Amino acid sequence: MANITDADAGFIGQSLRMRGYAFTEVLREHHEQWVTRVADLVDKADLVLSLGSNWSAYWPEVAPSVEAEATLLRRAYDQGVPILGICFGAQMLAHALGGRVFAAPEPELGWCLVQASDPQSLAGSVLAGEWMQWHGDTFEVPADSEILASSDCAIQAFRLGKCLALQFHPEATESVVSQWSAGQGQCELISAGVDPQDLLAQTRIKVVDAQERCDGLVSWFLADVAGRSTAHKSTY
Fold this sequence. Notes:
alpha/beta; about 240 residues; about 40% helix; Rossmann fold; about 25% strand
């Protein structure tokens, strides 16, 4: 699941492809083309990957697309198909499964520290550390969720069954951050007091470590959350 202009799965995509996964793109803007095929899409998937977006889940103008995605996510959850939600994808998981999405008191943009709920756990070891953040919304988790990580501003990770929601962006490569930092993104950064050139300079250094840590996160997700190793079908 992705938007037309933001469908690069970055390091997450690299890690999944290395483990034999293939992707079928499902675009939010074209929901009318696939919403009637949700059951078939989910039945053919080994897992669902829901990426970030510059949308807010509560915007009236995108409500049909949001509800189409929520329908797919609920179907996957009910069928036991693992889901990995990133940023907007995490917020969509919260929305689809009974939580609530709303504007955060302040945005998180740039490389920010994520703190694990249980630093001694395997989940804590892969989730804790500096990750790329780019969001102005946050969420309340669905009932029975396990909160795995937070920052000073927001919940950063929760697990519910075979679903993992990550508010931060482990997929963010240098090229992804460069794309986000252009145009309206540049205005967002400046408004938040973040220098775009400084962010790109930090990113060039930090992505080296982040790529390795992202691969460890994907490995943990597949083994401990999804109960998967290699794919036999497809990823959305």
